[in-house]
């Protein structure tokens, strides 16, 4: 999905891509609506769906902006700092235990983020990366909100209402920043919706089945895909600071995973 967004960002606005991603995703989900009918639409958690939708679409905008202005691997890594926030947010909000290892992981992970941000080297790059980091924090909050709803709300309903809210919220920006769309781009936009919806359904299901901190760790495998696609498609060669930062962030993820296992055993 990220590679498609980066490719389309050359000619389409971030606001358009945000709108297309959400509307295309909603179209892909229509068979679910037909299959489940009114049962899918009924909810007593409107406030949580609204919060998840607004926070989620804000996080998505920050991420899309970072993808358009950063190398793919570095944009991935900034976004993948999201799991670092999640144990802390889950501890504050959901009272899920966050032990000493979580604090160590937080410190190690943000040391890695600092290497990727390269403060003082390029103020424009640092500002874009900070927007991406804000998106990571918002994404963590959105995922913890999913965890909060998961006791009563099925995955399909959470994803469906997110698609509705995100599409409505992103419409004004898309209209104001509209750029012409070619036939080839329409095909890529449809593919974007299919891929994004499949990933979101899988992720939402995962957060219903396991503790927040444990699930988030597996997102780090995306670094491998990001580095490979960035090299093959855009000829991007990550700096040594990027690789060092990636190592620290992945180490933090492993620490979080060990913390989740220890908590479960206890």
Automatic annotation (TrEMBL):
Keyword Transferase: no
Parts of the chain that traverse the membrane: 18-37, 49-70, 76-94, 127-146, 158-178, 184-203, 215-234, 240-257
Superkingdom of origin organism: Bacteria
Subcellular location(s) per record: Membrane
Primary localisation category: membrane
Keyword Transferase: no
InterPro entries the UniProt entry points to: EamA_dom, EmrE-like
Protein name per UniProt: EamA family transporter
């Amino acid at each position: 999905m990220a590679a498609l967004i980066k490719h389309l960002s050359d000619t389409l606005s971030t606001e358009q891509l945000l709108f297309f991603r959400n509307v295309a995703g909603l179209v892909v989900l229509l068979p679910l609506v037909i299959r489940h009918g009114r049962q899918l639409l009924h909810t007593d958690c409107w406030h949580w769906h609204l919060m998840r939708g607004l926070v989620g679409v804000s996080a998505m905008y920050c991420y899309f902006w970072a993808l358009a202005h950063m190398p793919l691997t570095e944009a991935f890594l900034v976004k993948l700092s999201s799991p670092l926030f999640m144990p802390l947010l889950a501890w504050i909000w959901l009272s899920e235990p966050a032990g000493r290892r979580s604090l160590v992981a937080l410190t190690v992970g943000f040391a890695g983020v600092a290497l990727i941000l390269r403060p003082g080297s390029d103020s424009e790059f640092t500002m874009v990366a900070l927007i991406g980091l804000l998106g990571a924090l918002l994404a963590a909050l959105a995922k913890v909100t999913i965890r909060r709803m998961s006791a009563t709300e099925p995955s399909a309903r959470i994803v469906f209402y997110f698609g509705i809210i995100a599409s409505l919220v992103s419409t004004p920006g898309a209209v104001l920043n509209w750029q012409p769309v070619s036939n080839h781009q329409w095909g890529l936009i449809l593919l974007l919706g299919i891929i994004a919806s499949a990933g979101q359904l899988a992720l939402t299901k995962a957060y219903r089945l396991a503790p927040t901190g444990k699930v988030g760790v597996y997102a780090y495998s995306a670094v491998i895909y990001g580095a490979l696609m960035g090299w093959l498609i855009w000829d991007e060669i990550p700096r040594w600071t990027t690789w060092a930062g990636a190592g620290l962030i992945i180490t933090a993820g492993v620490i979080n995973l060990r913390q989740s296992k220890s908590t479960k055993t206890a």
